[in-house]
């Protein structure tokens, strides 16, 4: 693979792209958290709503941090490292908080906060992955390996 085939075909994403991505993450997580809050309220009262809200905040923050890591890594030319760090953030934080809240016991654990975190994690995983792909500029190598149809090579 020659050096020209790795040149970006587009400009790096702007900060506005990152902000819009975080807003789109919220647009995916909030309705699902609302449905979980409705279910949690029917099951556990107001604590069920609190559990759904906490699960939504945890999943949004971890996904937004993973998206920010992809953005910064792309700017620094460390795309793979930033995506791996994003996986650690996106997966590790919800798992850590879920296990801690479940082990602590109490009303949130009884309301099913760990299950709510898992459901919201799966929704945010799909959304954050698609948004992270938008942050990675297309290269000619990724699009088939030809730099340009008029290369004259």
Summarize the structure in words.
The chain is an all-alpha fold. The protein contains five helices and no strands. The longest helix has 31 residues, at 46-76. The chain is elongated, with a radius of gyration of 20 Å. The model has no long low-confidence stretch (mean pLDDT 84).
The poorly predicted ranges are none
Structural class: mainly alpha
Order of helices and strands: HHHHH
What would you call the shape?
elongated
Distance between the termini: 14 Å
Gyration radius, to the nearest Å?
Answer: 20 Å
Instruction: Average the pLDDT over all residues and give the rounded result.
Output: 84
Note the main attributes of this structure.
mainly alpha
Element layout with pairings:
Blueprint: H1 15-44, H2 46-76, H3 79-104, H4 107-110, H5 113-135
Helix pairs in contact: 1-2, 1-5, 2-3, 2-5, 3-5
Short description:
The chain is mainly alpha-helical and 153 residues long. The protein has helices at 15-44, 46-76, 79-104, 107-110, 113-135. Helix 1 runs antiparallel to helix 2, helix 1 (15-44) packs antiparallel against helix 5 and helix 2 (46-76) runs parallel beside helix 5 (113-135).
